[in-house]
């Protein structure tokens, strides 16, 4: 590719521009990712590219050097190279290719996602490379790279990473970390020179996965600042990094984290990287997330939409499965408005506790002599759908499956058994017999009970797992994707929830194949206020499960009133996970009203725009959902600590139409109000403000006790 054969390519969608152009050596450079550049004719584009050319500093290469779309050490990039590997058995053993013969194909139809496919070759070293760069109609960037071994011998890949350039005035970084029951906890720091890398080697996405890596202007918030973010859409080992070099480049990158020997390409074989998603906004994190939400809503396996209210049995009964107890739970669940009853762990052979049984997906006849039929019929007679928990990628050492097929257990590189985790091992899905057995068992149980929904769990890390001496996570991850794809093909309409010890598998790779994620095993609403807020950087609200638990949270021992628990779940895929049998009439009535309130908001949850109005007091956490046409919005105002001031600072409501007048009302379900919760100013008969006043001047909040919540509705007043 030289400049004549590859004129500058300007793609623009939804206020975002990408500008790709060849440098003087014919190497493609992504000159711009960010705000729309406007209508630029060829002359203007050439001028723009020329204006971006750097000078030649002292003690440097004598020719001008720009970092290409593929940062290459062989062209002087001294940060993390995009491509690394070496060859054995013939040819040139180079660890990094030197690409040339660049060419590009551009698809840029108005109203469609724009796409550029860039190809290049290192003929001598045998690397054939293809990059797919897309800009969606919502302004989301997607980039992935395929590498083909084009010559004799084996090409061993060490890294195939994708990067996007960020403007140097983004000097602050935000990434996320976490642990079980505290997933996606934010950490912020200045973006200094060097590489800030977040690697995940859990063999799954991980509780501590960063979810997004965000660079932004100092002090960026949910509704302020210019931000660039990337996400690696992959459920196995992965890396995300932010790199600011001494030369002056600022890049965000990511890719699969490959162990030595994990991907070895024979001649003609191809490795394709996961997508790197990139989202930009000049108005803070919320609009950045909207592009990601639009993407996930569009790639959903099923038509996204209103999610049924769930009753999950886990914290209600754990392993204590009896028809009588579960039928009674179903009765009460239906009476409070539940629409889908999900039987969690404990229904299959040998599963009386969490130390046995995984690997055989047949109903335990000692607990269910007539199979699950009596329960399923009962659930259906109450008008509810039926869902079932499974953990298909795992096997208990104490199980019929492991006793019959010890070779199905994924082992360490020297064939030793990895240490158990929750007393379980990983099923080797590359073993075709193991794979087919689990797939057929799943299809059989789903067909027999006409299961509407699977809660698909995954409760351990995969470390030191190998096949034929090579690390196995890459192939295992692809096998899981295949299993999900085949199951969905066999049962169109089956919905699947991704759970992994709570929220250890939340990524766009799994969300392309599932319909809901379980963000965390904690349903303590105080923890959930944080976890949901940060998980929603990527995940739209209707795809995020949130359950009302009992008054005392099982994972923390904290107790909260029903209003706080229910308001925290209100704007998500709502459900209960609580032994509802034996609750008094008053509590059931209150829960019924919360469920009904959720159903009122539900159409908006499935289609609306999620906002998080920034509040100066960290004790106040606000989550809002605004209808697409901005005719209506709902906000949950929650406290996560005592407010700093007697009167909490005014709340600047974002998302509303500035020109529109809105009636604000308090829609909180009345309950045993805490004596410190004083009557909100937006009394039942409401107050009217314009969207502009609500955002610019803000509205006052009621006095709120620590760990309490109010629900505010704004509805357009039509004149
Ligand atoms: C871990 C999940 O996160 C829980 O919700 C529950 O399904 C248990 N596994 C069941 O073993």
Automatic annotation (TrEMBL):
<feature type="active site" description="Nucleophile">
    <location>
        <position position="457"/>
    </location>
</feature>
<keyword id="KW-0326">Glycosidase</keyword>
<feature type="binding site">
    <location>
        <begin position="455"/>
        <end position="459"/>
    </location>
    <ligand>
        <name>substrate</name>
    </ligand>
</feature>
<protein>
    <recommendedName>
        <fullName>Alpha-galactosidase</fullName>
        <ecNumber>3.2.1.22</ecNumber>
    </recommendedName>
</protein>
<dbReference type="InterPro" id="IPR031705">
    <property type="entry name" value="Glyco_hydro_36_C"/>
</dbReference>
<feature type="binding site">
    <location>
        <position position="499"/>
    </location>
    <ligand>
        <name>substrate</name>
    </ligand>
</feature>
<feature type="binding site">
    <location>
        <position position="180"/>
    </location>
    <ligand>
        <name>substrate</name>
    </ligand>
</feature>
<dbReference type="InterPro" id="IPR013785">
    <property type="entry name" value="Aldolase_TIM"/>
</dbReference>
<dbReference type="Pfam" id="PF16875">
    <property type="entry name" value="Glyco_hydro_36N"/>
</dbReference>
<feature type="binding site">
    <location>
        <begin position="344"/>
        <end position="345"/>
    </location>
    <ligand>
        <name>substrate</name>
    </ligand>
</feature>
<feature type="binding site">
    <location>
        <position position="521"/>
    </location>
    <ligand>
        <name>substrate</name>
    </ligand>
</feature>
<feature type="binding site">
    <location>
        <position position="422"/>
    </location>
    <ligand>
        <name>substrate</name>
    </ligand>
</feature>
<dbReference type="Pfam" id="PF02065">
    <property type="entry name" value="Melibiase"/>
</dbReference>
<feature type="domain" description="Glycosyl hydrolase family 36 N-terminal">
    <location>
        <begin position="27"/>
        <end position="265"/>
    </location>
</feature>
<feature type="domain" description="Glycosyl hydrolase family 36 C-terminal">
    <location>
        <begin position="624"/>
        <end position="704"/>
    </location>
</feature>
<dbReference type="InterPro" id="IPR017853">
    <property type="entry name" value="GH"/>
</dbReference>
<dbReference type="InterPro" id="IPR031704">
    <property type="entry name" value="Glyco_hydro_36_N"/>
</dbReference>
<comment type="similarity">
    <text>Belongs to the glycosyl hydrolase.</text>
</comment>
<dbReference type="GO" id="GO:0016052">
    <property type="term" value="P:carbohydrate catabolic process"/>
</dbReference>
<dbReference type="InterPro" id="IPR038417">
    <property type="entry name" value="Alpga-gal_N_sf"/>
</dbReference>
<keyword id="KW-0378">Hydrolase</keyword>
<feature type="active site" description="Proton donor">
    <location>
        <position position="521"/>
    </location>
</feature>
<dbReference type="InterPro" id="IPR013780">
    <property type="entry name" value="Glyco_hydro_b"/>
</dbReference>
<dbReference type="InterPro" id="IPR002252">
    <property type="entry name" value="Glyco_hydro_36"/>
</dbReference>
<dbReference type="GO" id="GO:0004557">
    <property type="term" value="F:alpha-galactosidase activity"/>
</dbReference>
<dbReference type="InterPro" id="IPR050985">
    <property type="entry name" value="Alpha-glycosidase_related"/>
</dbReference>
<dbReference type="Pfam" id="PF16874">
    <property type="entry name" value="Glyco_hydro_36C"/>
</dbReference>
